[in-house]
Amino acid sequence: MQKRKLGNGNLEVTVLIGSGLIGVAIARRVSSGKHILLADLRKENAEAAAAVLSNAGFEVTTATVDVSSREQVKSLAQQAAALGEVTGVIHAAGVSPSQASPQQILAVDVYGTAVVLEEFGNTIAQGGSGVVIASQSGHRLGALTNEQNKLLATTPADQLLSLPMLQPDQVKDTLHAYQLSKRGNSLRVMAEAVRWGKRGARINTISPGIIITPLAKDELTGPRGEWYRRMIELCPVGRAGTPDEVAHVAALLMGPEGAFITGSDILMDGGVTASYFFGELAP
Question: Which position among 178, 198, 217, 276 bears the catalytic label?
């Protein structure tokens, strides 16, 4: 696979944070000729995903990162910049309601995403683009006030977890924490798109529904499994999605055909949200 270089001769780099199937599918679609820096919380997960990409012809470097640590995210951004020009960022790391406590979900999915956007917003190359994987869950959270929206979107990352609305007496269960996090992700990306635009770069979110991955299978057999199976059965499309379908949308958002799209959130959930508000999934 021929390496892609910019006019200044620098190698193009895609940064993939999170080694799950969705992130890997996106990286495969948008990284031909680029070097991939693949980072995950667990070294063994990063190396397993890197082996798949390497066998498909991609050049991959692995790293470990805890996105809830600014120091580690900043180090990852520096490592990426040392490899070449960062023209793509795929943030697909996160924890689900069945995996962690409300406070852990907020630390990884709210704070961690904000830090990734801040640090890579400082290094993204002109003409670069990124996607953040959010969730359909953010669309089912009740309306927030304008002030709450602004706080989630613009509060400096290191102050986010001190917001009154994110305290344990306000966020008492994991689903609420997850929904707040994913709503916050789309709001944060909207605000960051303004700053990224000053560097000539774009950033968007994708909010997938149930996509068949090992994580989704855990959810389907977990405490809320019956509800998730009902979502699949009663949504207009009548099935779950695949990582490749998310990658199709990401390729549009990150590629030249999506050059007029930034600060946007694409909901792709087979119509689950539509059914939740206007169909058989209504509470």
Answer: 178
